[in-house]
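Re-run with default settings, no changes from the original entry. Doing this only to confirm the output is reproducible before filing.
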Amino acid sequence: MAKGKVYVFDHPLILHKVTILRNKNTGHKEFRELVEELAMLMAYEVTRSHPTREVEVETPLAKAKGRSIAGQEIAVVPILRAGLVMEAGITRLIPTARVGHIGIYRDPESLEPVPYYSKLPEDIAEREVLILDPMLATGGSTVSAIDTLKQKGCRTIRVLAIIAAPEGIEKVHNAHPDVEIYTAAVDSHLNDHGYIVPGLGDAGDRLFGTK
């Protein structure tokens, strides 16, 4: 099976907001707001091809034909903790989406993912799943999250990451070539500590002001 696709957004608003996000002088309040806005814009683009069906509604003046969302319903699954802010942006856009949570941290020595929490909607297998994490770095956490979702029977899984590293993309597609990745930027490489370069630093710390 061929490796999966990577979609890199080129919308001017997305590019503009990512640039502000990268700036080391952007404070955590503005950083959090930008991540939420970016997630909403990215979800708007990801769902562009979602199927619709014709429906009829009655306006104050007459009956009118329109379109309504059809096909699989959506579930969003942020990887704790940084993915939480992305979830807030997407559920504002798609309030009917169910939300699951997967907790994974990266061992600072081995850089390997360590799962510690999973709570998913009961009907997750019937839904299109959007995995949310601002940074796709080593790819270990994302692969672990996809493993968990596939064990639950999920068939349609997409990854939304604001910034991705080539190493992370390769790791995800080697393990799960059917999973599509959507990102606003593919950066140069990972450094020795597993951080994306040039990246934007530690997304979790910058989101929550913990460093």
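The CA atoms of residues 32 and 42 lie 15 Å apart. Helices lie at 12-22, 28-46, 83-93, 140-151, 166-175, 203-208.
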